[in-house]
Amino acid sequence: MFHSAIESRLRAAVSALVPTADPATIQVKPASEARFGDFQSNSLMLVAKAARMNPRQLASDVVARLDVSELCEPVEIAGPGFLNFRLTRQALEQWLSDAACGKPVLIPKAETPRTVVLDFSSPNVAKPMHVGHIRSTGIGEALQRMWRLLGHRVISDNHIGDWGTQFGKLLVGWKELLDRQALESDPIAEMERLYKTVNTQCDADPARLEMARQELVRLQAGDPENLAIWKEMIRLSQVQFDTLYGRMGTRFDHTLGESFYNAELGSVVEALLAAGIARLSDGAVAVFSDRTLSPKEDPFLVSRDGEWVDVPALIRKSDGGFNYMTTDLATVDYRIRTWAPDEILYVVDDRQSGHFRGLFHVFARWQPEAYRKTQLRHIGFGKILGEDGKPFKTRSGDTVRLADLLDEAEERALQVVTEKRPDLDPSERREIARIVGLGAVKWQDLLPNRQSDYVFSWDKMLALQGNTAPYVQYQYTRAAKVVRDSGAPTAAQPIALTEPAEIALAKHLMNLGFTLQAAAEECRPNYLCNYLHELAGLYSSFYEACPVLKAEEPARSTRLALCRLSAQVLRLGLETLGIEVTEKM
Ligand code: ARG
Protein backbone atom coordinates (compact mmCIF):
# COMPACT_ATOMS: atom_id res chain seq x y z
CA MET A 1 0.00 0.00 0.00
CA PHE A 2 1.78 3.07 -1.28
CA HIS A 3 0.06 5.56 0.87
CA SER A 4 1.15 3.88 4.09
CA ALA A 5 4.63 3.11 2.75
CA ILE A 6 5.18 6.76 1.89
CA GLU A 7 3.66 7.83 5.17
CA SER A 8 5.90 5.69 7.33
CA ARG A 9 9.03 6.82 5.48
CA LEU A 10 7.95 10.42 5.80
CA ARG A 11 7.43 9.91 9.54
CA ALA A 12 10.93 8.48 9.89
CA ALA A 13 12.48 11.36 7.97
CA VAL A 14 10.62 13.97 10.03
CA SER A 15 11.43 12.27 13.34
CA ALA A 16 15.11 12.27 12.48
CA LEU A 17 15.03 16.03 11.91
CA VAL A 18 12.46 17.04 14.52
CA PRO A 19 12.54 14.51 17.36
CA THR A 20 9.72 16.32 19.20
CA ALA A 21 7.22 15.88 16.35
CA ASP A 22 4.38 13.43 17.04
CA PRO A 23 4.54 10.88 14.20
CA ALA A 24 0.77 10.37 14.29
CA THR A 25 0.26 13.93 13.10
CA ILE A 26 2.31 13.33 9.97
CA GLN A 27 -0.10 12.13 7.34
CA VAL A 28 -0.17 11.32 3.67
CA LYS A 29 -3.48 11.40 1.79
CA PRO A 30 -4.64 10.82 -1.76
CA ALA A 31 -4.15 14.09 -3.63
CA SER A 32 -7.17 16.37 -3.61
CA GLU A 33 -6.63 17.11 -7.31
CA ALA A 34 -4.82 15.14 -9.97
CA ARG A 35 -2.59 18.10 -10.84
CA PHE A 36 -0.97 17.79 -7.39
CA GLY A 37 0.08 14.21 -8.16
CA ASP A 38 -1.24 11.08 -6.49
CA PHE A 39 -0.62 11.70 -2.80
CA GLN A 40 0.03 14.76 -0.74
CA SER A 41 1.08 15.69 2.74
CA ASN A 42 0.11 18.95 4.41
CA SER A 43 1.61 18.02 7.75
CA LEU A 44 4.99 19.73 7.60
CA MET A 45 3.57 23.20 8.14
CA LEU A 46 2.17 22.14 11.50
CA VAL A 47 5.38 20.41 12.50
CA ALA A 48 7.40 23.47 11.52
CA LYS A 49 5.07 25.77 13.40
CA ALA A 50 5.26 23.73 16.59
CA ALA A 51 9.07 23.54 16.34
CA ARG A 52 9.38 27.22 15.29
CA MET A 53 11.07 26.31 12.03
CA ASN A 54 10.75 27.68 8.55
CA PRO A 55 8.30 25.28 6.85
CA ARG A 56 9.81 25.57 3.42
CA GLN A 57 13.28 24.87 4.81
CA LEU A 58 11.97 21.93 6.82
CA ALA A 59 10.28 20.58 3.69
CA SER A 60 13.47 20.66 1.69
CA ASP A 61 15.48 19.07 4.52
CA VAL A 62 12.86 16.33 4.83
CA VAL A 63 12.80 15.70 1.09
CA ALA A 64 16.59 15.43 1.06
CA ARG A 65 16.35 12.61 3.63
CA LEU A 66 13.28 10.91 2.22
CA ASP A 67 13.96 7.97 -0.03
CA VAL A 68 10.88 7.00 -1.98
CA SER A 69 12.61 6.76 -5.33
CA GLU A 70 11.42 3.26 -6.16
CA LEU A 71 7.81 4.42 -5.68
CA CYS A 72 7.64 8.02 -6.77
CA GLU A 73 9.01 10.61 -9.14
CA PRO A 74 11.14 13.23 -7.36
CA VAL A 75 9.02 14.70 -4.55
CA GLU A 76 7.73 18.19 -5.22
CA ILE A 77 7.53 20.95 -2.61
CA ALA A 78 4.66 23.31 -3.23
CA GLY A 79 3.54 26.56 -1.63
CA PRO A 80 4.61 27.09 1.97
CA GLY A 81 5.62 23.42 2.47
CA PHE A 82 3.17 20.97 0.90
CA LEU A 83 4.67 17.75 -0.40
CA ASN A 84 3.35 16.23 -3.61
CA PHE A 85 4.06 12.65 -4.55
CA ARG A 86 3.62 11.23 -8.03
CA LEU A 87 3.85 7.46 -8.42
CA THR A 88 6.10 6.09 -11.08
CA ARG A 89 4.37 4.18 -13.86
CA GLN A 90 6.37 1.14 -12.86
CA ALA A 91 5.21 1.20 -9.24
CA LEU A 92 1.60 1.49 -10.32
CA GLU A 93 1.99 -1.40 -12.78
CA GLN A 94 3.60 -3.56 -10.15
CA TRP A 95 0.76 -2.84 -7.76
CA LEU A 96 -1.85 -3.65 -10.38
CA SER A 97 -0.15 -6.89 -11.24
CA ASP A 98 0.06 -7.90 -7.56
CA ALA A 99 -3.55 -6.95 -6.93
CA ALA A 100 -4.83 -8.70 -10.03
CA CYS A 101 -3.30 -12.00 -9.06
CA GLY A 102 -4.69 -11.83 -5.57
CA LYS A 103 -1.78 -10.60 -3.46
CA PRO A 104 -3.02 -8.85 -0.32
CA VAL A 105 -2.31 -5.31 -1.47
CA LEU A 106 -5.90 -4.09 -1.65
CA ILE A 107 -6.97 -3.86 1.97
CA PRO A 108 -4.64 -2.72 4.72
CA LYS A 109 -5.04 -4.88 7.82
CA ALA A 110 -4.95 -2.91 11.05
CA GLU A 111 -1.54 -3.02 12.72
CA THR A 112 -3.12 -2.82 16.16
CA PRO A 113 -6.58 -4.37 15.85
CA ARG A 114 -9.13 -2.75 18.10
CA THR A 115 -12.07 -4.26 19.92
CA VAL A 116 -15.21 -2.36 19.08
CA VAL A 117 -18.66 -2.87 20.57
CA LEU A 118 -21.30 -1.78 18.10
CA ASP A 119 -24.76 -0.96 19.46
CA PHE A 120 -27.16 -0.60 16.54
CA SER A 121 -30.71 -1.12 15.28
CA SER A 122 -32.12 -1.59 18.82
CA PRO A 123 -35.88 -1.50 18.09
CA ASN A 124 -38.54 -1.67 20.76
CA VAL A 125 -40.55 -4.81 21.48
CA ALA A 126 -44.25 -4.89 20.54
CA LYS A 127 -43.82 -2.10 18.01
CA PRO A 128 -43.33 -2.47 14.27
CA MET A 129 -39.90 -1.61 12.93
CA HIS A 130 -40.38 1.52 10.87
CA VAL A 131 -38.56 3.41 8.14
CA GLY A 132 -36.24 5.09 10.68
CA HIS A 133 -34.82 1.70 11.58
CA ILE A 134 -33.32 1.41 8.15
CA ARG A 135 -30.89 4.14 9.23
CA SER A 136 -29.58 2.60 12.41
CA THR A 137 -29.67 -0.91 10.94
CA GLY A 138 -28.06 -0.02 7.60
CA ILE A 139 -25.37 2.29 8.95
CA GLY A 140 -24.61 -0.10 11.81
CA GLU A 141 -24.30 -3.08 9.50
CA ALA A 142 -22.01 -1.19 7.12
CA LEU A 143 -19.80 -0.16 10.04
CA GLN A 144 -19.69 -3.69 11.34
CA ARG A 145 -18.53 -4.96 7.96
CA MET A 146 -15.98 -2.19 7.39
CA TRP A 147 -14.32 -2.59 10.77
CA ARG A 148 -14.14 -6.36 10.34
CA LEU A 149 -12.71 -6.09 6.86
CA LEU A 150 -9.86 -4.00 8.26
CA GLY A 151 -9.09 -6.71 10.81
CA HIS A 152 -10.69 -5.25 13.92
CA ARG A 153 -12.68 -7.29 16.42
CA VAL A 154 -16.32 -6.22 16.33
CA ILE A 155 -18.93 -7.25 18.89
CA SER A 156 -22.37 -6.26 17.66
CA ASP A 157 -25.13 -6.03 20.22
CA ASN A 158 -28.78 -5.30 19.49
CA HIS A 159 -29.93 -3.38 22.56
CA ILE A 160 -33.65 -4.02 22.06
CA GLY A 161 -36.17 -2.12 24.16
CA ASP A 162 -37.76 -5.05 25.97
CA TRP A 163 -38.43 -3.41 29.34
CA GLY A 164 -40.08 -0.26 30.56
CA THR A 165 -43.36 1.40 31.33
CA GLN A 166 -45.01 0.49 28.03
CA PHE A 167 -45.41 -3.08 29.32
CA GLY A 168 -47.89 -2.00 32.00
CA LYS A 169 -50.28 -0.80 29.31
CA LEU A 170 -49.54 -3.73 27.05
CA LEU A 171 -50.35 -6.14 29.86
CA VAL A 172 -53.71 -4.50 30.56
CA GLY A 173 -54.50 -4.66 26.85
CA TRP A 174 -53.35 -8.26 26.49
CA LYS A 175 -55.46 -9.43 29.43
CA GLU A 176 -58.65 -7.62 28.46
CA LEU A 177 -58.69 -6.79 24.76
CA LEU A 178 -56.58 -9.39 23.00
CA ASP A 179 -57.90 -10.63 19.68
CA ARG A 180 -56.24 -14.05 19.35
CA GLN A 181 -56.91 -14.33 15.66
CA ALA A 182 -55.42 -10.94 14.91
CA LEU A 183 -52.44 -11.85 17.06
CA GLU A 184 -51.86 -14.91 14.98
CA SER A 185 -52.04 -13.23 11.60
CA ASP A 186 -50.11 -10.05 12.47
CA PRO A 187 -48.78 -10.09 16.02
CA ILE A 188 -47.06 -6.72 15.91
CA ALA A 189 -50.10 -4.94 14.55
CA GLU A 190 -52.22 -6.47 17.29
CA MET A 191 -49.78 -5.52 20.03
CA GLU A 192 -49.58 -2.04 18.63
CA ARG A 193 -53.37 -1.83 18.66
CA LEU A 194 -53.48 -2.97 22.29
CA TYR A 195 -50.92 -0.42 23.31
CA LYS A 196 -52.60 2.44 21.50
CA THR A 197 -56.05 1.60 22.85
CA VAL A 198 -54.95 1.37 26.46
CA ASN A 199 -52.72 4.40 26.10
CA THR A 200 -55.68 6.51 24.98
CA GLN A 201 -57.78 5.16 27.84
CA CYS A 202 -55.02 6.00 30.31
CA ASP A 203 -54.85 9.57 29.07
CA ALA A 204 -58.54 9.99 29.83
CA ASP A 205 -58.87 7.92 32.99
CA PRO A 206 -56.44 7.97 35.92
CA ALA A 207 -57.87 4.72 37.27
CA ARG A 208 -56.88 2.99 34.05
CA LEU A 209 -53.40 4.44 34.33
CA GLU A 210 -53.14 3.17 37.88
CA MET A 211 -54.16 -0.27 36.65
CA ALA A 212 -51.37 -0.25 34.08
CA ARG A 213 -48.94 0.82 36.77
CA GLN A 214 -50.04 -2.09 38.96
CA GLU A 215 -49.49 -4.56 36.12
CA LEU A 216 -46.03 -3.16 35.61
CA VAL A 217 -45.19 -3.46 39.30
CA ARG A 218 -46.38 -7.07 39.21
CA LEU A 219 -44.22 -7.78 36.18
CA GLN A 220 -41.21 -6.21 37.85
CA ALA A 221 -41.86 -8.24 40.99
CA GLY A 222 -41.71 -11.43 38.93
CA ASP A 223 -45.40 -12.36 38.80
CA PRO A 224 -45.45 -15.61 36.75
CA GLU A 225 -48.48 -14.76 34.62
CA ASN A 226 -47.17 -11.33 33.66
CA LEU A 227 -43.71 -12.68 33.03
CA ALA A 228 -45.12 -15.34 30.70
CA ILE A 229 -47.10 -12.76 28.70
CA TRP A 230 -44.09 -10.45 28.55
CA LYS A 231 -41.90 -13.29 27.25
CA GLU A 232 -44.49 -14.11 24.62
CA MET A 233 -44.51 -10.48 23.46
CA ILE A 234 -40.73 -10.55 23.12
CA ARG A 235 -40.80 -13.84 21.25
CA LEU A 236 -43.38 -12.58 18.77
CA SER A 237 -41.48 -9.35 18.22
CA GLN A 238 -38.21 -11.18 17.73
CA VAL A 239 -39.79 -13.22 14.93
CA GLN A 240 -40.60 -9.99 13.12
CA PHE A 241 -37.16 -8.52 13.80
CA ASP A 242 -35.46 -11.66 12.52
CA THR A 243 -37.48 -11.66 9.32
CA LEU A 244 -36.46 -8.08 8.63
CA TYR A 245 -32.83 -8.67 9.58
CA GLY A 246 -32.83 -11.62 7.20
CA ARG A 247 -34.03 -9.41 4.37
CA MET A 248 -31.59 -6.65 5.27
CA GLY A 249 -28.67 -9.08 5.62
CA THR A 250 -27.95 -7.95 9.18
CA ARG A 251 -26.50 -10.12 11.92
CA PHE A 252 -25.77 -9.49 15.55
CA ASP A 253 -23.40 -11.32 17.83
CA HIS A 254 -25.69 -10.59 20.78
CA THR A 255 -29.18 -9.37 21.48
CA LEU A 256 -28.96 -8.33 25.08
CA GLY A 257 -32.08 -6.26 25.54
CA GLU A 258 -32.68 -3.70 28.24
CA SER A 259 -34.19 -6.37 30.52
CA PHE A 260 -30.85 -8.18 30.60
CA TYR A 261 -29.57 -5.46 32.95
CA ASN A 262 -32.49 -5.50 35.40
CA ALA A 263 -30.64 -7.13 38.24
CA GLU A 264 -27.85 -4.53 38.06
CA LEU A 265 -29.94 -1.37 38.12
CA GLY A 266 -30.36 -1.17 41.90
CA SER A 267 -26.66 -1.42 42.54
CA VAL A 268 -25.84 1.13 39.84
CA VAL A 269 -28.04 3.64 41.64
CA GLU A 270 -26.51 2.73 45.00
CA ALA A 271 -23.01 3.11 43.62
CA LEU A 272 -23.77 6.55 42.20
CA LEU A 273 -25.39 7.64 45.45
CA ALA A 274 -22.44 6.37 47.48
CA ALA A 275 -19.97 8.16 45.22
CA GLY A 276 -21.88 11.40 45.65
CA ILE A 277 -22.58 11.55 41.92
CA ALA A 278 -26.34 11.13 42.33
CA ARG A 279 -28.61 12.50 45.02
CA LEU A 280 -32.18 12.31 46.22
CA SER A 281 -34.49 14.83 44.65
CA ASP A 282 -38.23 14.84 45.42
CA GLY A 283 -38.19 11.15 46.24
CA ALA A 284 -36.39 10.31 43.01
CA VAL A 285 -32.66 9.84 42.46
CA ALA A 286 -30.97 12.08 39.94
CA VAL A 287 -27.56 13.13 38.69
CA PHE A 288 -27.02 16.88 38.61
CA SER A 289 -24.35 18.93 36.95
CA ASP A 290 -21.04 18.88 38.84
CA ARG A 291 -20.22 22.30 37.36
CA THR A 292 -16.89 21.05 36.01
CA LEU A 293 -17.72 21.80 32.38
CA SER A 294 -18.49 25.12 30.83
CA PRO A 295 -22.30 25.57 30.95
CA LYS A 296 -22.49 25.31 27.16
CA GLU A 297 -20.92 21.86 27.17
CA ASP A 298 -22.66 20.67 30.30
CA PRO A 299 -25.30 18.05 29.43
CA PHE A 300 -27.16 18.78 32.68
CA LEU A 301 -27.69 22.50 32.20
CA VAL A 302 -29.93 24.40 29.80
CA SER A 303 -30.23 28.09 29.26
CA ARG A 304 -33.66 29.50 30.15
CA ASP A 305 -34.34 33.23 29.98
CA GLY A 306 -30.63 33.92 30.03
CA GLU A 307 -29.94 31.72 33.06
CA TRP A 308 -28.39 28.30 33.31
CA VAL A 309 -30.78 25.91 35.02
CA ASP A 310 -30.35 22.29 36.06
CA VAL A 311 -31.80 19.48 33.98
CA PRO A 312 -30.79 16.48 36.06
CA ALA A 313 -30.76 12.94 34.64
CA LEU A 314 -33.18 10.71 36.52
CA ILE A 315 -31.84 7.31 37.41
CA ARG A 316 -34.58 6.18 39.78
CA LYS A 317 -38.15 7.42 39.78
CA SER A 318 -40.01 8.19 42.99
CA ASP A 319 -42.03 4.96 42.52
CA GLY A 320 -38.80 2.96 42.48
CA GLY A 321 -38.77 2.34 38.70
CA PHE A 322 -35.59 2.88 36.74
CA ASN A 323 -34.88 4.99 33.65
CA TYR A 324 -33.35 4.64 30.19
CA MET A 325 -30.23 6.30 31.61
CA THR A 326 -29.92 3.74 34.41
CA THR A 327 -30.08 0.85 31.96
CA ASP A 328 -27.53 2.47 29.70
CA LEU A 329 -25.15 3.01 32.62
CA ALA A 330 -25.43 -0.65 33.58
CA THR A 331 -24.91 -1.55 29.93
CA VAL A 332 -21.64 0.39 29.54
CA ASP A 333 -20.39 -1.14 32.76
CA TYR A 334 -21.28 -4.65 31.59
CA ARG A 335 -19.74 -4.20 28.16
CA ILE A 336 -16.48 -2.91 29.53
CA ARG A 337 -16.23 -5.68 32.11
CA THR A 338 -17.14 -8.38 29.60
CA TRP A 339 -15.28 -7.39 26.44
CA ALA A 340 -12.75 -4.72 27.47
CA PRO A 341 -13.42 -2.82 24.25
CA ASP A 342 -11.30 0.05 22.96
CA GLU A 343 -14.46 1.71 21.69
CA ILE A 344 -18.21 1.51 22.10
CA LEU A 345 -20.18 2.94 19.19
CA TYR A 346 -23.86 3.80 19.51
CA VAL A 347 -25.58 4.11 16.15
CA VAL A 348 -28.65 6.02 17.25
CA ASP A 349 -30.79 8.90 15.95
CA ASP A 350 -29.38 12.38 16.59
CA ARG A 351 -32.43 13.25 18.68
CA GLN A 352 -30.81 11.18 21.41
CA SER A 353 -27.54 13.12 21.36
CA GLY A 354 -28.39 14.79 24.68
CA HIS A 355 -28.97 11.42 26.26
CA PHE A 356 -25.59 10.13 25.11
CA ARG A 357 -23.70 13.24 26.15
CA GLY A 358 -25.25 12.83 29.57
CA LEU A 359 -24.53 9.12 29.68
CA PHE A 360 -20.87 9.53 28.76
CA HIS A 361 -20.41 12.31 31.26
CA VAL A 362 -21.99 10.39 34.15
CA PHE A 363 -19.95 7.35 33.27
CA ALA A 364 -16.75 9.43 33.24
CA ARG A 365 -17.50 10.57 36.78
CA TRP A 366 -18.46 7.11 37.95
CA GLN A 367 -15.56 5.12 36.42
CA PRO A 368 -12.85 7.56 35.33
CA GLU A 369 -10.29 4.81 34.79
CA ALA A 370 -12.53 2.76 32.49
CA TYR A 371 -13.66 5.93 30.75
CA ARG A 372 -10.07 6.84 29.89
CA LYS A 373 -9.47 3.45 28.33
CA THR A 374 -12.67 3.21 26.34
CA GLN A 375 -13.77 5.66 23.72
CA LEU A 376 -17.55 6.12 23.88
CA ARG A 377 -18.96 7.53 20.66
CA HIS A 378 -22.47 8.42 19.64
CA ILE A 379 -22.75 7.85 15.90
CA GLY A 380 -25.77 10.01 15.24
CA PHE A 381 -27.87 10.41 12.12
CA GLY A 382 -30.57 12.68 10.76
CA LYS A 383 -34.14 12.16 9.63
CA ILE A 384 -35.71 10.81 6.47
CA LEU A 385 -37.99 13.40 4.89
CA GLY A 386 -40.80 13.13 2.36
CA GLU A 387 -40.77 15.15 -0.87
CA ASP A 388 -42.64 17.87 1.05
CA GLY A 389 -39.70 18.32 3.42
CA LYS A 390 -41.63 16.94 6.40
CA PRO A 391 -40.81 13.60 8.09
CA PHE A 392 -41.48 10.77 5.66
CA LYS A 393 -44.99 9.30 6.17
CA THR A 394 -47.48 7.15 4.31
CA ARG A 395 -50.15 8.92 2.29
CA SER A 396 -52.57 8.59 5.19
CA GLY A 397 -50.04 10.19 7.51
CA ASP A 398 -48.88 7.05 9.36
CA THR A 399 -45.34 5.98 10.05
CA VAL A 400 -43.97 3.88 7.21
CA ARG A 401 -43.32 0.31 8.25
CA LEU A 402 -39.96 -1.08 7.30
CA ALA A 403 -41.49 -4.28 5.90
CA ASP A 404 -43.82 -2.32 3.62
CA LEU A 405 -40.98 -0.12 2.48
CA LEU A 406 -38.81 -3.09 1.52
CA ASP A 407 -41.78 -4.70 -0.29
CA GLU A 408 -42.39 -1.55 -2.27
CA ALA A 409 -38.71 -1.21 -3.15
CA GLU A 410 -38.70 -4.73 -4.60
CA GLU A 411 -41.99 -4.13 -6.41
CA ARG A 412 -40.81 -0.91 -8.02
CA ALA A 413 -37.48 -2.44 -8.98
CA LEU A 414 -39.40 -5.29 -10.59
CA GLN A 415 -41.16 -2.83 -12.88
CA VAL A 416 -37.82 -1.40 -13.96
CA VAL A 417 -36.27 -4.83 -14.50
CA THR A 418 -39.31 -6.06 -16.42
CA GLU A 419 -39.11 -3.07 -18.71
CA LYS A 420 -35.39 -3.47 -19.38
CA ARG A 421 -35.14 -7.23 -19.47
CA PRO A 422 -38.37 -8.79 -20.76
CA ASP A 423 -36.17 -11.63 -22.06
CA LEU A 424 -35.43 -12.99 -18.59
CA ASP A 425 -37.76 -15.43 -16.91
CA PRO A 426 -39.99 -14.15 -14.11
CA SER A 427 -38.18 -15.83 -11.22
CA GLU A 428 -34.88 -14.43 -12.40
CA ARG A 429 -36.40 -10.98 -12.73
CA ARG A 430 -37.76 -11.24 -9.18
CA GLU A 431 -34.38 -12.09 -7.77
CA ILE A 432 -32.70 -9.22 -9.63
CA ALA A 433 -35.46 -6.88 -8.45
CA ARG A 434 -34.90 -7.96 -4.86
CA ILE A 435 -31.18 -7.22 -5.09
CA VAL A 436 -31.64 -3.94 -6.94
CA GLY A 437 -34.60 -2.72 -4.89
CA LEU A 438 -33.02 -3.36 -1.48
CA GLY A 439 -29.70 -2.06 -2.74
CA ALA A 440 -31.34 1.16 -3.93
CA VAL A 441 -33.00 1.89 -0.58
CA LYS A 442 -29.84 1.16 1.36
CA TRP A 443 -27.60 3.20 -0.91
CA GLN A 444 -29.91 6.19 -0.74
CA ASP A 445 -29.72 5.96 3.03
CA LEU A 446 -25.95 5.52 3.25
CA LEU A 447 -25.01 8.12 0.65
CA PRO A 448 -25.72 11.42 2.45
CA ASN A 449 -23.53 12.62 5.27
CA ARG A 450 -25.20 10.66 8.06
CA GLN A 451 -26.00 13.70 10.17
CA SER A 452 -27.97 15.42 7.41
CA ASP A 453 -31.65 14.82 6.85
CA TYR A 454 -32.40 13.52 3.37
CA VAL A 455 -35.42 13.40 1.09
CA PHE A 456 -36.72 9.94 0.28
CA SER A 457 -37.26 9.53 -3.46
CA TRP A 458 -38.17 6.31 -5.26
CA ASP A 459 -37.38 7.77 -8.67
CA LYS A 460 -33.94 9.01 -7.74
CA MET A 461 -32.82 5.90 -5.91
CA LEU A 462 -33.89 3.52 -8.67
CA ALA A 463 -32.38 5.54 -11.52
CA LEU A 464 -29.84 3.66 -13.59
CA GLN A 465 -27.79 6.83 -13.99
CA GLY A 466 -26.49 8.95 -11.15
CA ASN A 467 -25.15 8.23 -7.71
CA THR A 468 -27.34 5.18 -7.11
CA ALA A 469 -26.95 1.51 -6.25
CA PRO A 470 -28.39 0.34 -9.58
CA TYR A 471 -25.77 2.35 -11.47
CA VAL A 472 -22.91 0.85 -9.46
CA GLN A 473 -24.45 -2.64 -9.57
CA TYR A 474 -24.77 -2.30 -13.33
CA GLN A 475 -21.13 -1.36 -13.83
CA TYR A 476 -20.27 -4.41 -11.77
CA THR A 477 -22.23 -6.67 -14.15
CA ARG A 478 -20.37 -5.21 -17.13
CA ALA A 479 -16.95 -5.73 -15.60
CA ALA A 480 -17.79 -9.22 -14.38
CA LYS A 481 -19.10 -10.20 -17.79
CA VAL A 482 -15.86 -9.25 -19.56
CA VAL A 483 -13.94 -11.39 -17.08
CA ARG A 484 -16.30 -14.34 -17.61
CA ASP A 485 -16.14 -14.02 -21.39
CA SER A 486 -12.36 -13.94 -21.36
CA GLY A 487 -12.19 -17.36 -19.78
CA ALA A 488 -8.74 -16.37 -18.52
CA PRO A 489 -7.49 -17.66 -15.17
CA THR A 490 -6.17 -15.23 -12.55
CA ALA A 491 -2.46 -15.54 -13.16
CA ALA A 492 0.34 -13.03 -13.33
CA GLN A 493 0.18 -11.35 -16.72
CA PRO A 494 2.28 -8.66 -18.36
CA ILE A 495 0.97 -5.24 -17.32
CA ALA A 496 1.62 -2.06 -19.27
CA LEU A 497 -0.47 1.01 -18.55
CA THR A 498 -0.61 3.50 -21.41
CA GLU A 499 -4.09 4.99 -21.89
CA PRO A 500 -5.20 7.81 -19.56
CA ALA A 501 -8.45 5.91 -18.81
CA GLU A 502 -6.43 2.87 -17.70
CA ILE A 503 -4.17 4.94 -15.49
CA ALA A 504 -7.02 6.85 -13.86
CA LEU A 505 -8.86 3.61 -13.12
CA ALA A 506 -5.77 1.89 -11.70
CA LYS A 507 -5.04 4.83 -9.42
CA HIS A 508 -8.56 4.92 -8.11
CA LEU A 509 -8.56 1.18 -7.43
CA MET A 510 -5.45 1.72 -5.39
CA ASN A 511 -7.27 4.14 -3.07
CA LEU A 512 -9.76 1.57 -1.76
CA GLY A 513 -7.70 0.92 1.35
CA PHE A 514 -7.40 4.56 2.27
CA THR A 515 -11.13 5.10 1.74
CA LEU A 516 -12.07 2.14 3.92
CA GLN A 517 -9.80 3.30 6.71
CA ALA A 518 -11.23 6.80 6.69
CA ALA A 519 -14.82 5.52 6.43
CA ALA A 520 -14.36 3.16 9.38
CA GLU A 521 -12.45 5.64 11.50
CA GLU A 522 -15.01 8.39 11.12
CA CYS A 523 -17.95 5.97 10.89
CA ARG A 524 -18.98 7.41 7.54
CA PRO A 525 -20.12 4.80 5.03
CA ASN A 526 -20.84 7.66 2.60
CA TYR A 527 -17.09 7.82 1.88
CA LEU A 528 -17.31 4.31 0.51
CA CYS A 529 -20.47 5.10 -1.50
CA ASN A 530 -18.78 8.05 -3.15
CA TYR A 531 -15.63 6.07 -3.79
CA LEU A 532 -17.63 3.30 -5.48
CA HIS A 533 -19.68 5.71 -7.52
CA GLU A 534 -16.51 7.30 -8.80
CA LEU A 535 -15.02 3.89 -9.50
CA ALA A 536 -18.12 2.89 -11.47
CA GLY A 537 -17.80 6.08 -13.53
CA LEU A 538 -14.09 5.54 -14.20
CA TYR A 539 -14.77 1.95 -15.15
CA SER A 540 -17.47 3.03 -17.55
CA SER A 541 -15.18 5.59 -19.25
CA PHE A 542 -12.41 3.04 -19.46
CA TYR A 543 -14.78 0.46 -20.95
CA GLU A 544 -15.89 2.90 -23.60
CA ALA A 545 -12.36 4.06 -24.46
CA CYS A 546 -10.48 0.77 -24.33
CA PRO A 547 -11.47 -2.46 -26.05
CA VAL A 548 -10.47 -5.39 -23.87
CA LEU A 549 -10.80 -8.84 -25.41
CA LYS A 550 -9.97 -7.69 -28.93
CA ALA A 551 -6.87 -5.74 -27.90
CA GLU A 552 -3.29 -6.88 -28.58
CA GLU A 553 -0.96 -7.93 -25.76
CA PRO A 554 0.08 -6.50 -23.39
CA ALA A 555 -2.97 -4.17 -23.55
CA ARG A 556 -5.32 -7.14 -23.40
CA SER A 557 -3.92 -8.58 -20.17
CA THR A 558 -3.61 -5.15 -18.64
CA ARG A 559 -7.20 -4.29 -19.40
CA LEU A 560 -8.44 -7.66 -18.30
CA ALA A 561 -6.64 -7.16 -14.99
CA LEU A 562 -8.36 -3.80 -14.67
CA CYS A 563 -11.76 -5.39 -15.37
CA ARG A 564 -11.12 -8.18 -12.91
CA LEU A 565 -10.05 -5.82 -10.20
CA SER A 566 -12.86 -3.36 -10.88
CA ALA A 567 -15.40 -6.17 -10.59
CA GLN A 568 -13.77 -7.38 -7.41
CA VAL A 569 -13.65 -3.97 -5.77
CA LEU A 570 -17.17 -2.99 -6.84
CA ARG A 571 -18.50 -6.21 -5.43
CA LEU A 572 -16.49 -6.08 -2.23
CA GLY A 573 -17.41 -2.45 -1.71
CA LEU A 574 -21.12 -3.00 -2.26
CA GLU A 575 -21.13 -6.05 -0.03
CA THR A 576 -19.35 -4.08 2.66
CA LEU A 577 -22.24 -1.66 2.52
CA GLY A 578 -24.61 -4.61 2.90
CA ILE A 579 -25.64 -4.48 -0.77
CA GLU A 580 -25.67 -7.56 -2.96
CA VAL A 581 -24.65 -7.80 -6.60
CA THR A 582 -26.22 -9.69 -9.46
CA GLU A 583 -24.54 -11.01 -12.59
CA LYS A 584 -27.32 -9.84 -14.91
CA MET A 585 -29.30 -6.64 -14.99
N1 ARG B 1 -34.51 1.32 21.87
C1 ARG B 1 -34.05 2.67 21.76
C2 ARG B 1 -35.02 3.49 20.92
O1 ARG B 1 -35.76 2.93 20.14
C3 ARG B 1 -32.67 2.77 21.15
C4 ARG B 1 -31.58 2.15 21.97
C5 ARG B 1 -30.23 2.62 21.54
N2 ARG B 1 -29.16 2.04 22.31
C6 ARG B 1 -28.86 2.39 23.58
N3 ARG B 1 -27.88 1.76 24.18
N4 ARG B 1 -29.49 3.34 24.19
O2 ARG B 1 -35.02 4.69 21.04
Question: Secondary-structure map with pairings?
Answer:
Blueprint: H1 2-17, E1 29-30, E2 39-41, H2 44-50, H3 55-65, E3 76-78, E4 82-85, H4 89-100, E5 115-119, H5 133-149, E6 153-157, H6 166-177, H7 180-185, H8 187-204, H9 206-220, H10 224-248, H11 262-274, E7 278-281, E8 284-287, E9 301-304, E10 307-310, E11 313-316, H12 324-339, E12 343-347, H13 353-366, H14 368-373, E13 375-379, E14 384-385, H15 402-420, H16 426-446, E15 454-455, H17 458-462, H18 469-486, H19 500-510, H20 512-521, H21 525-545, H22 555-576
Parallel strand pairs: 5-6, 5-12, 12-13, 14-15
Antiparallel strand pairs: 1-2, 2-4, 3-4, 7-8, 8-11, 9-10
Helix pairs in contact: 1-3, 2-3, 4-22, 6-8, 6-9, 8-9, 9-10, 11-12, 12-13, 15-16, 18-21, 18-22, 19-21, 19-22, 20-21, 21-22
The chain binds arginine (ARG).
Could you characterize the architecture of this molecule?
The chain has 585 residues and is of the alpha/beta class. Helices cover 54% and strands 10% of the residues. It contains 22 helices and 15 strands. It has helices at residues 2-17, 44-50, 55-65, 89-100, 133-149, 166-177, 180-185, 187-204, 206-220, 224-248, 262-274, 324-339, 353-366, 368-373, 402-420, 426-446, 458-462, 469-486, 500-510, 512-521, 525-545, 555-576; strands spanning 29-30, 39-41, 76-78, 82-85, 115-119, 153-157, 278-281, 284-287, 301-304, 307-310, 313-316, 343-347, 375-379, 384-385, 454-455. It has a four-stranded antiparallel beta sheet with strand order 1-2-4-3, with helices on one face. The chain has a four-stranded parallel beta sheet with strand order 6-5-12-13, with helices on both faces. Strand 1 (29-30) and strand 2 form a beta hairpin. Helix 12 (324-339) packs across helix 13 (353-366) and helix 15 crosses helix 16 (426-446). The chain binds arginine. Arginine binds at residues 119, 122, 124, 159, 161, 328, 331, 346, 348. Arginine is lined by residues 119, 122, 124, 159, 161, 328, 331, 346, 348.
